[in-house]
Amino acid sequence: MPVPAGQRLSRIKLLVDGNEVPPDGFTLNDIRVEDVESVELLTSPSKWAIYRMPVMLVTTRKGAPKWPVVKYAPGLITYKPKGYYNARTFYSPQYDTVQSSAADLRTTVFWTPNLVLDESGKVKLDYFNTDKPGNYRIVLEGIDSDGKLARKTYSYKVN
Q1: Residue 50 pLDDT > 60, yes or no?
Q2: Where are the beta strands (DSSP E) in 27-148?
């Protein structure tokens, strides 16, 4: 139920950047005002039900100092996405040199992190298949400069 006007909250759980702050020796005065991006006060039981008490959410700006936090928060799963990763170069055999007698049994035939499409939205790829005949699948996944995701799947057969 909402807190009636003029009534104080006797107990409140403090979360800084999604992590519960231990109640001993830490107050809001320990956070610099310049580091605070937003503050939310959840007083409705439907919003703070998993905490069983009102909650104050403080979000700090990027680069703000890290505060002491409790790692376990009942009912919450913390996920920290890795973001963009500039990948290493993927090995691709060069068959313009002397042929090896060993069979080519790679499970991933070709991979490249930076395809650039032409004006018509097409790209030309050159790669060598493995020595194992069968059905192969091409999966193209990417992101454009506007942050839009793309995925397309093709299949082909090697005899």
Answers
A1: yes
A2: 36-42, 55-60, 134-143
